[in-house]
């Protein structure tokens, strides 16, 4: 009850402080619709951490969620409870901790006790491994990919830019949006190939450009997203959500593919965690960098709409373009990992 009350107070405070404008005075169940991606992620993580108690919750929320690891409890062939933590691809990324006692009962109380026991074993067994990871220096996403990204052209959505896009005959593109409350269209749409990113704003227009709509309708070009669990980006672009988001369909998602390669998680990993898992050789913790607040303010109605992408500062353009380009990069890295670990 106490944990529940603390979470409800947190919800109320965050809701009141970020959505005090009258037009956002909605019930709690619509909160995520009006918060930007970063605010929603913070709320979800605080909600789970504040209600966490015991080794099972500690392992799940403070360790596995933090590093983007999957976790699975099961009874092995010898009848012992075990927990499997996947901290990377392949056999070397799988850590298994097994109870010395055989499972003797499947009552709710016995299962809870058994999971707590193996979770405690995992917390102790992975302590040194976790300490090594936590000592690693932090690097921003831009710093990690800077050598490759600096040669990428960032272009406004013009006929000339789209002509270059179509001439390159892309078969795979990364797509991201900014300022997105699942309304159509969002504040900004970013479309990335390996060599260019097109930025398209819709502040003064209620429809997507002809070229962007052509891209979305073209089933021969695979569109890669790294979306939230509610598929905000896809829905804001009028895309129907396919059942399989990690296959050869024209709409795929890095989060879904990461779940296939690294195991499923209870919350979305996020782009930086996925890049970190795909590139263990980095020997650093990858962080997003400074989030651009203007997109959130436009999304919430507290800032004037963009007239065109040229309204953005160079850092804002870079931030937006990097998201779409790195989404495409993450998909390619996952494909390579998937091929080598099968």
Textual characterization of the structure:
This protein is α/β, with parallel strands linked by helices and 342 residues long. 46% of the residues lie in helices and 17% in strands. The chain has helices at residues 2-18, 31-34, 37-50, 54-67, 108-125, 127-135, 141-149, 159-167, 210-217, 232-236, 254-262, 271-278, 293-299, 314-341; strands at residues 70-75, 80-86, 94-102, 138-140, 153-156, 172-178, 188-192, 196-201, 222-225, 251-253, 285-287. The strands form 3 sheets. A 6-stranded mixed β-sheet has the order 5-8-7-6-9-10, sandwiched between helices. A 3-stranded antiparallel β-sheet has the order 1-2-3, with helices on one face. Strand 7 and strand 8 (196-201) form a beta hairpin. Helix 7 packs across helix 14, helix 11 runs parallel beside helix 14 and helix 12 packs across helix 14. The longest helix is centred in the last third of the chain and has 28 residues, at 314-341. It is elongated and about 70 Å long. Residues 1-34 and 46-52 have low confidence and may be disordered.
Tags for this entry?
6-stranded mixed sheet; elongated; 342 residues; 46% helix; alpha/beta
Structural class: alpha/beta
Order of strands across the widest beta sheet?
Answer: 5-8-7-6-9-10
Number of helices: 14
Radius of gyration: 22 Å
Give the percentage of residues in beta strands: 15-25%
Overall pLDDT: 84
Strand segment tally: 11
User: Tell me, what's the shape?
Assistant: elongated
Percent range for helical residues? Answer: 40-55%
Largest sheet: 6 strands, mixed
Query: Could you give the order of the helices and strands?
Result: HHHHEEEHHEHEHEEEHEHEHHEHH
Span of the ends, CA to CA: 46 Å
- Low-confidence stretches at least 5 residues in length (pLDDT < 50)? 1-34, 46-52
């Amino acid at each position: 009850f106490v944990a529940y009350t603390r979470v409800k107070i947190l919800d109320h405070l965050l809701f009141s402080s970020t959505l005090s404008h009258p037009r956002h005075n909605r019930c709690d169940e619509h909160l995520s619709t009006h918060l930007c991606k970063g605010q929603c992620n913070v709320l979800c993580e605080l909600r789970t951490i504040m209600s966490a108690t015991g080794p099972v919750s500690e392992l799940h929320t403070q360790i596995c969620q933090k590093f983007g690891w999957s976790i699975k409890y099961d009874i092995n062939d010898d009848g012992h409870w075990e927990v499997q933590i996947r901290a990377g691809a392949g056999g070397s990324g799988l850590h298994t901790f097994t109870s010395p006692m055989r499972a003797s009962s499947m009552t709710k109380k016995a299962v809870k006790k058994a999971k707590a026991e193996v979770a405690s074993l995992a917390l102790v067994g992975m302590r040194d491994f976790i300490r090594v990871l936590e000592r690693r220096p932090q690097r921003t996403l831009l710093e990690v990919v800077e050598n490759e990204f600096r040669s990428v052209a960032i272009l406004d959505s013009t006929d000339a830019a789209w002509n270059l896009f179509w001439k390159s005959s892309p078969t795979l593109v990364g797509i991201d949006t900014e300022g997105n409350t699942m309304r159509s269209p969002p504040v900004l749409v970013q479309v990335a190939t390996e060599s260019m990113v097109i930025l398209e704003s819709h502040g003064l227009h209620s429809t997507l450009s002809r070229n962007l709509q052509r891209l979305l309708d073209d089933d021969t070009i695979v569109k890669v997203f790294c979306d939230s669990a509610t598929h905000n980006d896809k829905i804001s672009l009028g895309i129907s959500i396919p059942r399989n988001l990690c296959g050869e369909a024209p709409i795929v998602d890095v989060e879904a593919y990461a779940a296939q390669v690294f195991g499923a998680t209870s919350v979305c990993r996020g782009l930086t965690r996925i890049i970190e898992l795909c590139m263990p050789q980095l020997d650093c913790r990858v962080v997003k960098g400074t989030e651009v607040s203007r997109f959130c303010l436009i999304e919430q109605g507290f800032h004037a709409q963009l007239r065109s992408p040229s309204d953005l500062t160079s850092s804002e353009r870079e931030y937006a373009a990097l998201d779409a380009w790195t989404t495409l990069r993450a998909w390619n890295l996952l494909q390579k990992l998937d091929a080598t670990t099968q």
